[in-house]
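Protocol step 4 of 5: obtain the predicted structure for the target chain.
Materials: sequence only (see below). No template structures provided, no constraints applied. The aim of this step is simply to have a reference model before the mutagenesis design in step 5. Sequence pasted as it appears in the construct record:
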Amino acid sequence: MGALAGFWVLSLITYGYLCWGQDLDEEGSLRAQVEERPEAGTAAASQPHLIFILADDQGFRDVGYHGSEIKTPTLDKLAAEGVKLENYYVQPICTPSRSQFITGKYQIHTGLQHSIIRPTQPNCLPLDNATLPQKLKEVGYSTHMVGKWHLGFYRKDCMPTKRGFDTFFGSLLGSGDYYTHYKCDSPGVCGYDLYENDNAAWDYDNGIYSTQMYTQRVQQILASHDPTKPLFLYVAYQAVHSPLQAPGRYFEHYRSIININRRRYAAMLSCLDEAIHNVTLALKRYGFYNNSILIYSSDNGGQPTAGGSNWPLRGSKGTYWEGGIRAVGFVHSPLLKNKGTVCKELVHITDWYPTLISLAEGQIDEDIQLDGYDIWETISEGLRSPRVDILHNIDPIYTKAKNGSWAAGYGIWNTAIQSAIRVQHWKLLTGNPGYSDWVPPQAFSNLGPNRWHNERITLSTGKSIWLFNITADPYERVDLSGRYPGIVKKLLRRLSQFNKTAVPVRYPPKDPRSNPRLNGGVWGPWYKEENKKKKTNKTKAKKMQKKSKARTRKQLAARSSTKCHPSVSTG
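Step 4 output (structure tokens):
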């Protein structure tokens, strides 16, 4: 560990940080094309401009202010001048975090509690959920999305432009080539995945790296929008998700990193940091900055096999250990009352839904049961968070723990089921939480996972339940389930209460009609609405026929009843 720490310090001293104000025109800035709009002469909108930037697979350690050897001067500066969220949680994989951000609801309340939405599945975010952009449009916001959707697309009604966004430019799937925007889900099931609103964006099939291409689109949106009218901009970058690709010049500062995956990942993150620098410049240039709220978040923990690092947290992406769900996050805004602070109150990704709607002066219907809380005063003024617990998830489909049982759960809960919950300082996990090692940044080894510098842990035989005091033990090194059975029972009961409100899991089998070969070589909606209407009409016709036959039978029975039974004499 001393050697690791020494290397990180030496790396920072040797290479330094990139300059905050450096000229980055070659990455697509519009500075030379449009004159800067002076903010002083711009009438500010009463509603703030809302900019939500979501990084993909960025590890907890992978930001300069968390001690990373990767240089992120933009993120460091924005966070230092805003509010760092150091008790901030997301979900362990892509679709769940995105669904919870856009609905304010836990996975168990949307049916997306298992895995992600696969490209070939006839599945999407349920259409009966009012999305964040839809609520913002109700109060006059222009809504734009740039980047990765990953909330399903099998029907046209599932597309971003049908879920509240005025415009959409980006990808529908969870990953793909950064230059060609091409994705294979399996052999022979491949297609193009870049969209402009509801159509394939073939005009952009020109080899531009997606991080830079998305930044250019953000700049264009800001250049063309009237800053006196409220704007919601959701920027979901593809970076730093695999495949590990980056323009060559971003490797310059990381030649000392021997591990090739870590080196590529570092280059990708540096490019992302520079992109956010350009977005921030555009906000200032076009008159948005002084009345804007910029939120930055990762969607889940990093994946060590793909260069990410969550050190010193335990576990990785796809797990319910802290390394999978505790995220990099901050808020940067001139509208913050307490700038340059650290928020250690409990915050979850579902909280952005009610928080942003409240900031936008919108309304949340009383009959909508949200799982998020309005946490603006917590962030801006340092008040206590209204949140005291987080349901990380209950997944009844995930592989059951062999040694889990109702007995191990005191008759309250079947510990074979994968679940995780946080209540105040306490965190409880049951079932199979996932890969549980502590993995330091892989800067020195290029020999693969079998030769990593890591702390391996073999789960105790028969183990299916864990309890940690996260405030005292954020690295989950001391299991307290045997010492505090009363706390375990309390959290198990809370899990059981949540489970009673769960809706059925939506995880349909793949549909062969989804193959891009059948859709002009493009990933896109394949479910034909007219087929549904025909089937619906046929179903209705059959029901009407059944009802008609039933009425006829009743009428015949009534008639026969009158004819066959003689009247009874009363005298």
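Step 4 remarks: The first strand starts at residue 49 and ends at 55. The CA atoms of residues 389 and 423 lie 4 Å apart.
Proceed to step 5.
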